[in-house]
Amino acid sequence: MFVDKKVALITGGASGLGFRYAIELLQNGLRGVTLADTDDAKGNEAVLKISEDFGADKVLFVKTDVAVKEQLDNAFKRTVEKFGNLDIVINNAGVMVEAIWEKMIGINVNGTIYGCILAMEEYFPKYKSGKEAVIVNISSVAGLQGISVLPFYVATKHAVIGLSRSLGTPDQYESTKTRVVTICPGATNTPLLHDLDKKALNDRYLDLTMKHPTFDLFPMQQIDIVPKCMLKVVEEGPNGSIWVVEDDEIYEVELRNRQDLKKK
Ligand SMILES: NC(=O)c1ccc[n+]([C@@H]2O[C@H](COP(=O)([O-])OP(=O)(O)OC[C@H]3O[C@@H](n4cnc5c(N)ncnc54)[C@H](O)[C@@H]3O)[C@@H](O)[C@H]2O)c1
Q1: pLDDT at 196
Q2: Which domain of life is it from (predicted)?
């Protein structure tokens, strides 16, 4: 298996989906994982849990705000100091708060770009343990369609798709030996989706949100299926591939080139 004896760094890995990705990969032979997250308390809790279940030598928590490149760089540096290698980077940290959209862009977009640059330009070339490394960027089904009540979050997740489509091209692979794959989860039961009434831009958006047929359009899935999708794409997701995991189903999507999108 690709994941066997490899080292991963997961942003936003202290809780939610990021933590579950760590567990899934550890269960499948991962040698070590860094959880790079802003939340100290959850980070320490996560370290305790992983240490109990897999051993203290398997995990490192580094307090990190991905919107600050130096902090993310520090997490990469600490990872190779502890584990000696770095093979898998999961750019997962993200928020969905329309009211602080500039900050959200800093986390969801800049944070993901920093993660790609640090991995592809600096750390993978020196520290990958095999022939190939992997970046998994986390977009969303919101990266594949417009959603009236979440325009700014949708914009950040479309940005992640564009980034991954560009970095996941054959010429990029040829010169970096890095597979860049993307996962687009559907609505999944984590704190990201809680307290939506406090996250709207203003009262008009709050009103729209309350009237929006969210649950019909975005069926809520339990977390368990999403880490399975992570393992699948780390193992066998082709470079540039984009995967949806929604309503307990995992499938690859094909985005067409603009010429094929021409309206007939
Ligand atoms: N839950 C969903 O329905 C859903 C659907 C599609 C995509 N996603 C995406 O999946 C990713 C994880 O979401 P989740 O549902 O696990 O959310 P979550 O809120 O449960 O967890 C997010 C984690 O990221 C951390 N984090 C937040 N800001 C950070 C920052 N600036 N730097 C580092 N860490 C930070 C938090 O402390 C937390 O541990 C996000 O990118 C999100 O957009 C989630």
Answers
A1: 84
A2: Eukaryota
Structural domain includes residue 122: yes
Domain count, the chain: 1
Instruction: Annotate the chain with DSSP letters as a single string.
Output: -TTTT-EEEEETTTSHHHHHHHHHHHHTT--EEEEEES-HHHHHHHHHHHHHHH-GGGEEEEE--TTSHHHHHHHHHHHHHHHS---EEEE------GGGHHHHHIIIIIHHHHHHHIIIIIIHHHH-SSS-EEEEEE--GGGSS--TT-HHHHHHHHHHHHHHHHHTSHHHHHHH-EEEEEEEE-SBSSGGGS-GGGTSSSHHHHHHHHHS-HHHHS--B-TTHHHHHHHHHHHHPPTT-EEEEETTEEEEE-PPPGGGG---
pLDDT computed for residue 215 by the predictor: 67
Nearest Cα residue to atom 40 of ligand 1: 94
Q: What is the mean pLDDT of the chain?
A: 96
Asked whether residue 257 is assigned to any structural domain, the reply reads: no
State in Å: Cα 139 to ligand 1 middle: 11
Tell me which residue range forms the domain holding 78: 7-251
Clarify whether 114 is annotated catalytic.
no
How far, in Å, from the CA of 195 to the mean position of ligand 1? Answer: 14
Pocket test residue of 192, 224, 233, 244 for ligand 1, highest count of atoms within 8 A of CB: 192
pLDDT by residue (tens digit) across 128-157? 999 999 999 999 999 999 999 999 999 999
- Verify whether ligand 1 is closer than 6 Å to residue 193 (CB atom): yes
CATH code where residue 192 lies: 3.40.50.720
